[in-house]
Amino acid sequence: MCRNRLVAYQKNKIKGFKMRKDIHPKVVDCSVTCACGNEFMIRSDNEKMSIDICNECHPFFTGSEKIVDAAGRVEKFKNKYKLG
Ligand SMILES: [Zn+2]
Known about the structure:
Blueprint: H1 3-14, E1 28-34, E2 39-44, E3 48-51, H2 59-62, H3 73-80
Parallel strand pairs: 1-3
Antiparallel strand pairs: 1-2
The protein binds zinc ion.
Zinc ion binds at residues 34, 36, 38, 53-54, 56-57.
């Protein structure tokens, strides 16, 4: 528990605060469908989710990402630290 929440909790405790019942959403298995066709399961309060992009089709993960580098900064960085 972070400090702010702990302080708030202790203040409430002093006032005789009681936790509210039945306000927490029910957690269920959720099937996520991506626009690329990939499907996977997560835990959520929804049973179904459809997303536009996932780790199977996002350029960052597929490696087709291109860095726009007109000033050659990436090259300079790589030379400086002797990377690839
Ligand atoms: Zn996808």
